[in-house]
Structure formats: structure tokens, C-alpha cells
Amino acid sequence: MSLRHLSQTSLQFILFGGKGGVGKTTMAAATAVELAREHKVLLFTTDPAPSLTDSFGQTIGSEPTAVEQVPNLFAMEIDASKVLKEFKEKYGSEILEILQQGTYLADEETEELFHLEIPGLDEVMSFKLIMDFMENKNYDIYIVDTAPTGHTLRLLMLPELLDNWIKFLGTLRWKYHKMVQHFARTERVEGADKFLVEMKKTVKKVHTLLQNAQKTEFVVVTIAEKMAVSETQDLIHSLSKMHIPSRDIIINNIFPRDESDFMHQRRLFQDKHIQTLKEKFPQHNVTEIILQATEVQGIDRLRTLGTQLFTETPEEDT
User: Fold this and answer.
1) Where is the AAA+ ATPase domain (predicted)?
2) 107-150 tens-digit pLDDT
3) Contacts of 228 (CB under 8 A, 6+ apart)
4) Which of 209-242 are b and which e, b meaning 16 or more Cβ less than 10 Å from the residue's Cβ?
5) In CATH, what number is assigned to the domain containing residue 274?
6) Is there a domain that residue 108 lies in?
7) Which alpha helices (DSSP H) does the chain contain, by range?
8) Which residue has the higher pLDDT, 14 or 183?
């Protein structure tokens, strides 16, 4: 099996995720290099410890960076704290207005509340940044190298978190408008109202995109070891509950079949876990990648891996 179908569909948004250390970044980068043969591709990473710079062998910044030797491929490492800071600078006055007009708190108290660290909000803004790039339609395909599983699931649940956050602010805004109507007998649409409408639209777009099987695919990356397989099963079940399309599993670092006793025993050990995944998820496309002889860094090695990922090979008996 292979990932060839990814280049033959209408997919626009491809996410790579899984347990830490299984090769998500490498698989995302190799896929991006391969898809850039025919499409203009933007590769993001939302991992707090990004490694695209190591993968490509060049500095990747917080703005789209042209990948050397690969026409049509651009990459960027999202700095979530920077994105959140820019968001607060852009919309801070509107949020403060909602808090000040919709609560009985003093101005200094609402200022303090505004500057509190809200768990997950930086990741919300990372997702919003990705959506902003997609809205501009400057690229054909957007690939996301996500953080390890726990962070990824929180990221994917962010539309719901952000929706609750907007509902809270909306309730405060509704109370303010009711008071204005009561005393002034008039109703005004202000900057804060427009901000809430814009954010509500963003949440709806993210939610719709994540559940669109024609445009979105979540590729699960794993290795054939007990803990990784267990985490993979939990991740796929969670994706299913959230109605996020996931039809691909990459099993990385598989030992080649060999006559030596050590290699033979290691492969037998891995075969059991490979078989478990195939039995648990028979509808998934499983792509098996043999352990590489060297680290996959640099364009040449990424191209070689990309060719392996997109080349149909007969499945081995396990």
C-alpha cells in the first residue's frame, strides 16, 4: 500500500500526527516534497519543538520559507506565543470592551483578566493562522506536522473550546446590548460585535474543514511497538469520535527481513503489532516503511523516502 491516492484526490488539508518520536515530521516533509512535484504546497509545524529546519537542512522561519531545491514547496514553523501576542494586539481593544461593558469588574480587573494565560488559546490562534493562509488560496495543498498525540488532540478539540469562549463573550455582549436598549432605546453595532461575528465564522470554517472528507485527511504515523500501537488506537478512535477523516496509517522503522537471528526476532516482534493494527483498522490504508540506513535529513533523502511512500508495493505476509 502507499500514499499515492493523496495526490490523486481533491485533498487540500493533510495532517500528520502520532506519538512523539515516531517520525511525523520526516513523513510530513517527505510527503510535502513528493506532492510539490505537481502542486504548490505549504508545510506547517505546530510542534513546540519544531524540527523542519533539521529535515530540510536550511533555516525555516515563522513566515513561509521557500524550500531550496524543491520548486513549489514552502514551509514555516508556527510560533504559537508570537501568534497569540499578535492576536491580542489586533483584537485586544475589542475583547477589553466586551469585558468592561459586560461585567461589573473595574477596568484594572478586566485588564488583569485579559492578560491571564488561557490554556489552549495559543494553539487556537495557531489554527486560526493556518485558516488565514488557506483563505488566501495561495497554495494548492496545506500540510500540518502536528505535535505529539496529546497536544494534537487538544488542537483538534480547539474549535469547540474557541466556540465556548466566544459564547461566553457573546453572553457578556448580549447583556450590554440589553442594557443599552433599555436605557437608550437604540441598538448599535460596534467593533466588538464585528469581532465576535468574525471569530464565530472562523470556528465554523475550522470545524467544517476538519470534518470534510473530500478536503481533509489525518495521516497517523506510528511504529510497531506496544506503547505506540496502543496510543495509535486511542488516537484513531478519538478522530472517529470527532468525525475527522483518517484513512491512512504509516508504520515507520520496520526491520527488514533478514537471516540473522537478531533481525529475525525483531521483525517477528514487529509483525505481531503490524497485524494488530491491520486487524483493528481493516478500512485503513497501511503503508509500511522499512527502517532507513541513515537519518532522513536533506532533500535527496526526503525525495527517496517520498518515492517509497508513494510507490505501490505488495504487502508482505506478517
Assistant:
1) 10-255
2) 565 555 555 555 555 666 677 788 889 888 899 999 999 876 55
3) 18, 19, 22, 222, 273
4) bbebeebbbbbbbbbbeeebbebbbebbebbeeb
5) 3.40.50.300
6) yes
7) 24-35, 52-56, 80-102, 107-114, 121-136, 149-156, 158-184, 191-210, 226-241, 261-280, 299-309
8) 14
Backbone angles phi and psi of 153, in degrees to 5:
-60, -40
Write out pLDDT tens, residues 248-279: 999 999 998 877 888 888 899 999 999 999 99
C-alpha cell at 166: 466566544
Q: How far apart are CA 171 and CA 166, in angstroms?
A: 8
Domain that holds residue 43: 4-79+140-156+212-309
The total number of structural domains that make up the chain? 2
Dihedral of alpha carbons 54, 55, 58, 59, sign:
negative
> Which phi and psi angles does 172 have, rounded to 5°?
-60, -40
How many Å apart are CA 213 and CA 211, to the nearest integer? Answer: 6
Q: Which three cell numbers stand for residue 174?
A: 448580549
Grid cell listed for 152: 494534537
- Cβ neighbourhood burial of 251 (10 Å; 0-12, 13-18, 19+): buried
